Amino acid sequence: MIQNKMDLISAVQFLKLNQIPPEWVDAVWDSEFTERTPLEDSIEDELAVSENKSFKTLYQCLLIHAADQQQQQQSAGRDAASQSIWAILGENKVSIKSLVAVLSFFVLGGKAKTANIQQRVSSLHAASIYLLLLGIPGSIANKVFHEVLLDMCSDLTSHCWPQDSGKKRKKDGLKSSQAEGKRSKPQRKDNAEMDVDEADEEEEEEELNFSGKDLMKIREAVVQLVQSLLRLLQTFPLKDRPQSAGSFTQIFSKLLSFEPIVGGSTFSAQQDINKLKSVPEMAFYGLQLLCSPTHGEQKESLRRVFHQLLYVILMMKKGNGGKPTPLVPSPAVLSTRDQAVHFICHLVEDLKELARPFLQILLQHICFQMVEKSEIRSHGAQAVGMLTLQMTSADYACFIKWLFNFTRKAKVAGRLFSIDVVMVFLEQPERKAEECQDPELQCFLPHKFLIQSLLFARRTDDSPTVQGHSLACLAQCLELPSPNVTRAVHNLFSATGAHTVLEGEITEGSSQVTQKTFRTLPFRTVEFSSTEPSDCEARENLALLLRRVKDSKVNVRKSALQALVGLLKHNVVPMIWENLEKLSECCRDPAVSVKKKALSCVGELLAAKPECSVVQKAWLQGVLPAVMDAESSVQDKALEALDQVVLCSIKAYFAGRHLDAGQRLTWDLLTLLCNECKNLSRYFSRAFGLWSKRNMVTQTFITNLISHTEAEHASGAWLLLSKVIASASRLPYEKILDAWDTMISSNDLPVTTSCHILCVMGDIATHLNTDTRERIIDDLMSWLKTFSLPLEVICAAVETLYQLGRSEDIKQTQAFLNQHCGELVSVCEAYLAPIILSEKGTQNLNEELMVKHLHTLGVASLHCPAKVGKRTVLLVESVLTTRSEKLPGCQEELPASLPLSQFKANSMPTKVRAHGVITLGKLCLQHEDLIHKYLPVFAREMEEGKEVAVRNNVVVIMCDLCVRYTNMVDHYIPNISACLGDNEAIIREQTLIMLTNLLQDEFVKWKGSLFFRFMVVLVDPVPAIASLCEYCLLHLLLKKNPEMFSQHFIECIFHFNSYDNHKSYNKFPQSERERLQFSLKGARNREKRFRIYRFLLEHFTDAQRFNITMKINQTVLACFADDELPLDADGADILSETFRILSLKEMKLQAISRPAGGAAAEEVEEENMATMARAVMQAAQKKVVSQVQKKVFIENVVPVIITLKSLLEQKRSPVLRDLMAYLQVTMQDYRNEVKEFFSGDEQLAAELEFALKTAEKEREMEEHMDQCSLTRVSRTPTAERSVQASPARSRVLLPFTFATPQPPRPNPPSARLTHTDRRVCRSGSLALEGTVMPKGAVDNRAISTPKGDNIDFTFDDEVSAIFSDRITSVIAESSVLDVRSNEQRAPGLRQWNVQSPLRQKKKGSIV
Asked: Which terminal residue of the chain, N or C, has fewer Cβ atoms less than 10 Å from its own Cβ?
């Protein structure tokens, strides 16, 4: 014992306490340890040479004495040795006051950013010694305790540990080591006016100059300091010092992220401090000690701890007073968050009922303060899921109830997070209803409520991001193993029935592989409720989902696709073409990301349902056209899918070999391409062209493919072979020639197979010898002359004939074609002549044979125009009209003024006449002289013909001739475009497609009435045609001519109203028939006209909107104001329509109409430099544009408006009402500047102000009525009586100052002033809108709401109920503003009168 005393006195000697002037000590104490008082240079130099070893020795001596003293107290009683250590110091003339002052000198020396390594380590050691002294009994009596010094010592780690030490560090630690060796004293602040900015920069530079060795020294001192804090908490009660307890809580929370925890950490009530290896472990133990009764009321302690851990779980950095900022979710941050979650679970498990109320509100704050970033949301949802496992079923139901209300009022980030939380809950086992005693809360426990009321209800959210996230999560629900989740999703889309899934069983319409949803049960029947929802609701849900697939937002479309595939995959919705067609159509979506998502979805569905023919068809229609996509990444994705499904599954064929699932799928797809989806096979040519460039088509693949030409799926093999044969180097020609011989001798070979074999023969023609080639030509000619072939085979056979006769000599090739194709033309002539020239030739007409002869004649004539004589033309002409009786004045030529149908009718069937038109068109393609003769005839036939097939083919011919003879056909474009208004839908659609192709390739220009006829198709009675027209205009034509819409907009007003009095507009020639056909004049067509106007305006740029507004003012309004246009009935209609157009919201500039920050202002909640800069730029742009628009409006528009108003008043015109409505809409943004705008007409200004005020009052009344009805809507299905915001129904939270966060209700300012005077005591959720707290009024309140709509409930001082550093008095505790219904409030609870800001200004405080 004596030795220990001697060691202690010896250890204190290095502090030179006897040399310290008393005046200096008094000055330090008088300054409250807030600044470092300089010592004399000699003494300071002596103290500066103190080594860390001296501090450690003193610390160990004090630690030994403290342990001995504690043992003596336990053995002999407190009075025996309570003053022993202080007595030792007193006996040896050691001044406690000087000791504390010198220790503070070292502590303050390490706080500066310019402090070197020695000063920082000494500071930490001095703080450890002070904390150790403070923990020894008798410290308060000996005046060791000082609150400022205690706070400074306990929080010294944040000053001494270099910030961002791991991010940037110099390679060489020489500078730091030299500083340590020199032991330089800190710089004195002699110059009070030093440059702060330069000093800060130097400090930051100095802060980064620490080597790894230096950091290890600081860490060792930090560990000693934290151990001292823990020892202090074990012996020094903080019950009467709540501020110190709060500071300790913050300090330990900061230390949680000091370093990663190696291995797991254990939380127990008693731990050996020396065995805690890492600083975070010590910090958790410190938080646990703070929750003990020794340091105050446990409820207050838990409140403080939960508050600090909130931001750890949210992965945010909370500074002193500012808004929390999200951290990057690195492994270290995630590890700290996990440890914090486990620690809270330990506290709740240990303290049970005492901690559960705070857990409830902690979860609510997590939801309320969550940011929008998906990664952080995902981790936060997992934390909420882990924490709710510690809740009882009743508490869990309360939280779900609160979450239900929260999803309807939260911001976008909160609604997104609620969906993430629901998905985590669905992964947990469902809680049983009998576990909750309250019958009103039992309805919140089933997974069905989570899916239908929380998840699927967000499908109609205002935010597209939330809509998309809801639908994406709905698809994920079906992948969960819970049968209740599956049943709940089924109930949303299926009203009645049951679906049984047996493991390993394959039935029609179900996947070959057992669904993941049913993987936990080998056999299960999922029963669908027939009562909820109804069949009608199920159909509406599906219809809504299909509409979302076509949503305007890309994210929503992608999520809806994912949801639809999940429902189809798990047989929730029927596997019918109407549903699958949406998937294939999305593969051609304008957005690249949607196309890629759709390709993935159809591939996923095909993998799940490989034997479903409808799915196979949808896959083909989605993937194959994508190989022609303009986006290379989409092409690559489609090629990859085709490679996996088609190329990789082609194996060599053996007669007895069984095909696996992949091979069967491949041949099923190829069979579909040969039958139902013939039109898609052409895309394989593009695919194999790209594959051959990448050397993906190998000789082994071709050999395997040829081996299948004799199998039952030979048609598919020939299809692929016809696409790949051109890029092959070596081929087994014998097998191909054998297949040719089989085809020639067979009569039942499929048409597509025959075409593919002919294509292969044409591709290998150059590799055949002369004898073989001549034999094939003879076979081919004999085959064609039978005229028994289908039309498709005739085309393929003539093309193969051309390939067989092609050579390098063009003349030789043409001679071959003249010989053989001319022979075919002669044969066709010989057949047609007796039928056409004979009076009774059509009596026993074989219609099919006649069509084949005409078709062969047309195809063959394209290759041998020299062999087509006048007789041939006249024969084909006679198919369309009788020539036996000539019309008056008609010699040898057909009159150009009459259509084909106006000649003497013949007895030819419509089918024959339709093919005759096609053949005549092919003859015209090769003979220019026939164009002049037949173009007028074709044009009149389009107008006055009666046969739909003939007129449809005439449209095709005219558009094909336009490519070859553009200048000639250009005069007949109005005749062709007139078919856009035809009575037959097929002709309208065909004309739209053909004209779009011509406009794309610029064979046709936007001249005359063409644009306006396209606009009329936008309002076509057939929705599919209107949608096709919209696609053609937006995605094909507008890209080539971005000014197209704005150039024609004003003329649309005159044209659709059939107004031609304007000197410039609507002056192009058109017949009366065409005028009536495309007129949209009159009130009954107003809706159609405005649909067109809105469509055009929606796709204007702001510059175009601005210019068109000015142009309308100059060319329309000014013309009426200057009496250039008469104000008659037609003129009044035009003027009225113009004002209505100017009043459209689509006419308003987007830069002004959208909120600051654009559409992303609501979608992205967190603030960063990029979003802030963008918001500033948009705000500046809005201000500039608004000023420019205001100036132009005053200078150019207002004079015209005043003149028009005077004119309309004189004529007592009803258009005046439209003019005032236009002004009312326009002046909404300038309601305070009406008199300035209309200074030239005071009466108009007064009338406009009155109209604006009246409209505002009406709008306020409507909003007021809507607000009053908010509490009567959106009730839960089985708990409509009360949906309360407070999560703890059965537990009284008073007198805790830890309250439920409340999401803001978006009230307009006027409605807010109306309602803030009321006491909100209803059972619904409580929202305090517009409440402004005076600075001193928070003492008697536990919750307050910042003014404005941008409410952010945090734990900030004087703002939130969840945390306040102030000592809550008994009065304050009884004045907590509760958020529960009247039935649940404790008796005697005082009601708060929450008043409006207006009354607060008058009274100065809240009563």
From this structure: N
